[in-house]
């Protein structure tokens, strides 16, 4: 199997895209640490499903926006698995509102989780990956970070920021055998998009050339590609998984 013997940490692995990523990495043979914020039971179920695929897996709670919690999480994962080969920064939130009405707290919360959270996780694995001269970091951005979207100034800023940050760290770590790439999903069928009003869903659907929502597994397969040996000469890239939406 492609990822046998590799160890992965997936943030926000309890639900949606993160859950599908955990299962895909496990299916390909990787051991998986499944981070979550509040959904302990869901994360434990993902861990159990991964173990049933024959790999080591466990759930681990940490708010990715909290530096001390992230450092403790990364330490514990390294203690339990030996090392981290793959980091998937998937944890993310939305707090949508027109910029005119957006509260400062809503802006900060989205930036803290989506952008600072990914920074803290990358910082925590930076030295260990550099020392082991191997690493695969995959960050979940969004086509909203490339194109903008009304009502999502905070979210678009966090996802566009993630692209610039990832490209910078990709350049810092390229000579050390560590790659940093991004997957940009379009409109994927998860709790995050289920919260959208029906009118917004209909409008979004009509903008997808493939005329269907993506499934979390569509995204997970792209993440697993960047996490694999096969992607060893690719870094700093954004791959859209969006049914043609951003074309
Ligand atoms: P989701 O179903 O809402 O799941 C979000 C995940 O993030 C959950 O596992 C949640 O954990 C975790 N999380 C949230 N805040 C956290 C924090 N502070 N610390 C640790 N974990 C936290 O989201 P999704 O739709 O799967 O999206 C996953 C990623 O893809 C996000 O980065 C999102 O921006 C991106 N994306 C999604 C779409 C889409 O259409 N769905 C499109 C483009 C990009 P709990 O379960 O414990 O709350």
From TrEMBL:
EC number: 1.1.1.100
Residue runs in coiled coils: none
Binding site for NADP(+): 12-15, 63-64, 90, 155-159, 188
Domain Ketoreductase: 6-191
Broad class of enzyme this protein falls into: oxidoreductase
Active site: 155 (proton acceptor)
Pathway the protein takes part in: Lipid metabolism; fatty acid biosynthesis
InterPro entries given in the database record: 3oxo_ACP_reduc, KR_dom, NAD(P)-bd_dom_sf, Sc_DH/Rdtase_CS, SDR, SDR_fam
Presence of keyword Lipid metabolism: yes
GO molecular-function terms, A-Z: 3-oxoacyl-[acyl-carrier-protein] reductase (NADPH) activity; NAD binding
Assigned keywords, A-Z: Fatty acid biosynthesis, Fatty acid metabolism, Lipid biosynthesis, Lipid metabolism, NADP, Oxidoreductase, Steroid metabolism
GO biological process terms on file: fatty acid biosynthetic process; steroid metabolic process
Catalytic activity, as annotated: a (3R)-hydroxyacyl-[ACP] + NADP(+) = a 3-oxoacyl-[ACP] + NADPH + H(+)
Family membership noted in the UniProt record: Belongs to the short-chain dehydrogenases/reductases (SDR) family.
Subunit structure: Homotetramer.
Function: Catalyzes the NADPH-dependent reduction of beta-ketoacyl-ACP substrates to beta-hydroxyacyl-ACP products, the first reductive step in the elongation cycle of fatty acid biosynthesis.
Protein name (database record): 3-oxoacyl-[acyl-carrier-protein] reductase
UniProt gene name: fabG
